[in-house]
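Session log. Operator J.P. requested a structure for one protein chain; no other inputs attached. Running the standard single-chain path with token output.
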Amino acid sequence: MLAYSRSTESNCRILEAGHTKCIDWAKRHGMKFAPNKYELIHFTRSRQFNLQASVHLEGTEKQPSTDIRVLGIWLDTKLRWTAHAREVQRKANAQTGALTRIAASTWGASFSRARQVYSAVVRPALAYGAGIWHTPGKDSARGLAAKLQPIQNKCLRVVAGAYKATPIRALETETHTPPLDLYLDGRLAAFRDQLASSPIGQSIQHACRTIQRRLRNKRGRKRGHRPTPGLARDEWAKARASDLGKPTESKRVLEAWKQRWQSSARPDSWDRVLRPPDPKVLKLHSGLHKAESSALVQFRTGYTGLAYFLHKAHVPGVESGQCSCQGGLETPRHILIHCPKESEHREELRKVGGGRLDLRKLLDTPEGAKVTSRWIVRSRCLHQFSLARALLYE
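Structure written below.
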């Protein structure tokens, strides 16, 4: 039951009168309500109202709550979604903990399985009710989406077996997982489109216009035009569909992701493999163990346990980024192509490129990724995979 007026006390009297009518209806139909299970909350962002006003129903006094749960969505008195953010983060922490217990960088569920767990279990929990609380931004996450983005970042590091220093932009591309705010944009746009074409949406718009009209300033002072709640989001959804020009929301999310990726693309200075968002990247991990997928992601992004990155990250004990062969910086390209210490072990890598060593073919094709990832784990260039090497190959 929703009551609106210019005071919380008046709202409580309206609720009491409405409840009396409900009781009369229940008696006629042999029904019964349980007032002790009711919850009361006042919605306002002003400090001038009495937020302690209560209702009296059948001898039961119901005190107001600071936040309540309605169909899985937590509402607070100011509708700032702070309560919902708190509960989602609490639930996501448990799910993230479960994900880290079934997968790590060198053992556990494979890359594909871990990604599936995140996409099917964790992300839906983060996005639940996004059509209600999500606020779309222009170039980055805002509002509740910005608070939930770190949870996705942590999960993607587990899925990819990547270092904490790995940029989230690279992890999103490697796991083909769009930024959380763009994913929520798609959920919001789909919800607004469905609501606009339904009788329920029309009823909501009519009710909002009625409430606005009745709550206008009594003195008749002119105020700036305030659109009906939801109308601005409907217009945003239509403009978004027109700008992206794709037939489905999943394709619009991918197109928006590509546009953001291209607008922030920077010259490659880490000697790594970069590509725009593309679902084909998932084929690179087909049939790989978790340790092999982790090694592949680390070499593709450049954030790995080689001297060049460790020196840049100021890891204690790493005095230089030079390879021990003194032939250049110890980077993925150097290890796979140039390092003389590995020259006798590159025969299988040469077969991938038809007799020559090509970084793109080694790290950016399904055939090359399968051979290269296993070569990396067996090559002993990364001590992180010593146990995985013994368990998988020895």
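Operator note: The chain has a mean pLDDT of 89.
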